[in-house]
Design a protein that fits this description.
By secondary structure, the chain is α+β, with helices and mostly antiparallel strands. The chain has 2 domains: about 50 residues, no CATH class; about 30 residues, no CATH class. The protein is about 30% helix and about 40% strand. The chain has 2 helices and 6 strands, in the order E-E-E-H-E-E-E-H. It has a 3-stranded antiparallel sheet, covered by helices on one side. A 3-stranded antiparallel sheet has the order 4-5-6. A hairpin with a 2-residue loop joins strand 2 and strand 3. It is globular. The model has no long low-confidence stretch (mean pLDDT about 85).
């Protein structure tokens, strides 16, 4: 079974919204908190969703946030592989 990452985005008058979907994992991000909340409510009306809060992992990628931005790492994945060996 093949599956693909789907990306939907909107950029209007300085407001950015990105929705990434892979299988049953959804990543929703943007720069307008009220719009994000509205989208989450609409999704929850159609599907049973769970808001996991701030992003830490997505598709095996560790996401670290600091004052300068985001750092993406596959460190945990590599460590898990080493433990299996």
């Amino acid at each position: 079974m093949e599956s693909e990452l789907c990306r939907y985005f909107s950029f209007t008058k300085g407001t950015q919204l990105d929705l990434l979907i892979y299988m049953d994992d959804i990543l929703l991000t943007g720069n307008d908190k009220s719009l994000l909340q509205s989208i989450k409510q609409q999704l929850d009306q159609q599907f049973s969703i769970k808001d996991l809060g701030s992003l830490h992992y997505y598709l095996g990628i560790e996401i670290l946030q600091n004052s300068k931005g985001l750092v993406m790492s596959k460190r945990k994945y590599a460590l898990d592989l080493l433990q299996c060996a």
